[in-house]
Write a structure and sequence with these properties.
CATH class of the largest domain: Alpha Beta
Number of helices: 12
CATH topology of the largest domain: Rossmann fold
Distance between the termini: 72 Å
Number of domains: 2
Radius of gyration: 22 Å
Structural class: alpha/beta
Length: about 300
Amino acid sequence: MTAAAERSSSSPAGALVTGEFSFSAANFREIAEIAKSEAGIDLPQSKATLVYSRLAKRLRALGIDTFTEYCATVRANDDERDSMIAALTTNVTRFFREAHHFEHLRTAIIEPLAESARRGNRVRLWSAACSTGQEPYSMALTVLSVIPDAASLDIRILATDLNPHVVAHGKNGLYQKEELRDVPPNLRAKWFAPVPGDSRGSLKIADEARSLVSFRQLNLMGTWPFSGPFDAIFCRNVVIYFDRDTQSMIWNRLTRMLKENGALYIGHSERISGPASSMLSTDGITSYRRKNSKSP
């Protein structure tokens, strides 16, 4: 009998999920409590199978036999706690995802700010869940399509994510050809180049684009070590992981980071709630602008 079969056969009859590892309701509750306290992630018990499948890979990687042992490891090890949270979140992304947001960014934010930027004024953008970098680099390419010399001006894009592994990927700026299929051909030709000697056919985004973006690990539930204000913030498909109260809190914090008339872009399945609702006005599909202080 294999070790996996031994573990399966020894699983208690009351296991929450039947599988390779013992996974009880108590294990799920502990994982859910850690995910909520550390990252604001709301995990109802209906997600038990998903949690099991995502974390079983961590148990195999660590050579751990039960979720009880794994929970003890997570409690004792900050790095594994980060890895657990990263495993429970989905990093689905692509260049120019929701293209209408980037068109709005170009026409409503960057073009009106271009002359001001050339006079030396600052422009600040934030990708608040940057994943492996496609979103902030799409923002950078949008900026460069309007202001080709943006790298020499005071224009910066902050790119943050909870997962340190995807942040490191974004810093590298390397992507496979198929990942660039949604990049407009003129931008792809101008701002990406093959990596010499790379057998995988990787392409690297140009230094002019990379220099606009600063990547940092950041937990949206924690302290934000910057004050803004931002001309535009992308926070898409993030708050869907949170409960209603946490969603309202995050929307409020993000909105207060915006300049007056600054733009907030959210996911197509998300809705603004809480105090932010009175501070924002709709300005397109899942696009909002912060009202100025004289607005009713």
